[in-house]
Amino acid sequence: MSDLTSSAAWQALDAHHKAMVRSCQTIKDLFKAEPERADQMWIETHGLRLDYSKNRVSAETMRLLLGLAKARRLEEWRARMAEGEAVNNTEHRAVLHMALRNRTKAGIPVDGVNVMTEVTAVLAQMKAFVASVHDGTWRGFGGEQITDVVNIGIGGSHLGPQAAMESLRNHAHAGISVHYVSNVDAHDIDGVLATLNPETTLFIVASKTFTTQETMTNAQTARRWVLDHFGDEKAVARHFVALSTNVDAVTDFGIETSNMFRFWDWVGGRYSLWSAIGLSLALGIGWANFEQVLEGGHAMDQHFLNSPLDRNMPVILGLLGVWNSNFLGAASHAVLPYDQRLDRFVDHLQQLDMESNGKRVNREGAVVNYQTGPVIWGRPGTNGQHAFYQLIHQGTRLVPADFIAVLHPDHHHLEHHKILLANLCAQTEALMLGKSEEQVRAQMLASGMAAEDAARLAPHRTFPGNIPTNTLFLDRLDPFHFGQLLALYEHKVFTQGIIWGVNSFDQWGVELGKELAQSILSDLEAVGDITRHDASTNRLATLVKTTLTE
Ligand code: F6P
User: Fold this and answer.
1) pTM higher than 0.95, yes or no?
2) Residue 237: which residues within 8 A CB-CB, separation 6 or more?
3) What ipTM was assigned to the predicted interfaces of this complex?
4) DSSP string covering 336-393, please?
5) Is 514 among the residues known to form the active site?
6) Disulfide engineering: 286 pairs with which of 117, 173, 196, 513, CB 3.0-4.6 Å?
């Protein structure tokens, strides 16, 4: 047994879970037993509301989960991260995305250096650059004003800005269109370039390392596209800027260091939207709006750092996730936004959560004997209702879900919004209540169906219910609330990482595939047969090689 599963706090939860199972207590029963539940399991902060009452947890479960958080010293770890300690222990790095959105300007020393000085300087550089593009001071090599910005990046250097840009499209700055290219599959960049004019296009090469194969390949293709048009190397400096920690590689690419926006190794890729990596977003929504995203993130940081654990939204969401995974056995967690603009937000959360907590060893390197991060997936409702909700309602797997909605939309179609939100409320109700075989049969008989048919169909039309859901309501999907929502999930992931004892801030699991891709690429480029891999890989790579050389 590990120190987690052998701890008194875990053992108490285990015993409590077994007693709950023995008593067959459902969420519906809990609402009867705890009449104040809907009020008590409700947290509000700055226009963001969480209802977590539709979970398979009693007041006692919550007390025990909070005991687990205390036993795992969550508050101490939270402070250690905020104070710039190297909590990313496998890379010996501080984890300071909170410093990027620190609106108090209070100093944060790391190794004796106040990181806020550099953060403030880069924000000022970004602000001036955004102004110069917007007011036309910054022009393309041919003298034209920039109308299109293409962010070339992947993973954390892509998903966050793209999700934010899509979520905040109602706040877009007129006159600038932002595009995203990430996949090394050239259909991606071809599709984007086909719509653009090199005279009016600015490329942002976003890469923390500036060595990522996909990003550098796309950046070189974009560079050729620009040079094919202008026929002059000097054009690169007017059509490319870089967001990176790697000054040398940026300079080698031909981007002037004055057009490089820095960030630091204490910013994890999937936590980097708040840094220079957010430049495409700042250009797309304007500086004042970008600052509001930072304000929203900061407001959530304050809530996370200062609220008692039992009223702390990210802590509660994190603990419920642990309960669902480790005690109820859920292998995945669905995120179901009832707002089309949050479609890409789910993709970002997927990376945030799965790259952070998809770990099999604890911080000390010991293999864990419990489940860690779940599979995160989802798509906007109501589309999902007509696609995959069937499995959530009647499948054999338990899929807990977060429902996310916005109270005030940025359109005037009240009728649509009413239908949308009615569906959200109905789904969480249906998932909790279900519908028993008796109810189903009675309904069919009342509609005049023959008893024999009703008996035959009843099992198919029965809903077990008792499926845990959280509901999050935002006042509006504006820059502030978007920042708040994103920071909420970042801290939820942190909370779970601390409970599970894993390092949420490295991602060694992406390395093996990268190495092998390099080796296969060299096989494809070399003369001779491919024989040094397993039989299957040799065969696949040979097929690729012969096809590409035909
Ligand atoms: O391969 C995973 C990863 O390292 C992510 O963690 C990161 O966000 C992404 O690749 C892109 O890395 P970079 O910003 O260095 O290009």
Assistant:
1) yes
2) 254, 255, 256, 259
3) 0.98
4) EEESGGGHHHHHHHHHHHHHHH--SB-TTSPBPSS--SPEEE---TTGGGGTTHHHHH
5) yes
6) 173
